[in-house]
Amino acid sequence: MDARLLEILVCPICKGPLNYDRGAQELVCNADKLAYPIRDGIPVMLVDEARQTVEGTPVEPLKPVGDA
């Protein structure tokens, strides 16, 4: 997933920041408790494709390009 793309993407509902869940290959909006899938390296930012997240499951915030 391109870090520059991750920096400009926002939640399509609230326009808030997204967190990247590398293991699940999802972009997560903690405010709306929705996870948007990443398929073949492409974020699917459609509300109909998002899934409800489990409350209390932390997702790490996006990290700058140089961090692992």
TrEMBL record:
<dbReference type="GO" id="GO:0005829">
    <property type="term" value="C:cytosol"/>
</dbReference>
<dbReference type="InterPro" id="IPR005651">
    <property type="entry name" value="Trm112-like"/>
</dbReference>
<dbReference type="Pfam" id="PF03966">
    <property type="entry name" value="Trm112p"/>
</dbReference>
<protein>
    <recommendedName>
        <fullName>UPF0434 protein AWB72_03915</fullName>
    </recommendedName>
</protein>
<comment type="similarity">
    <text>In the C-terminal section; belongs to the UPF0434 family.</text>
</comment>
<comment type="similarity">
    <text>Belongs to the UPF0434 family.</text>
</comment>
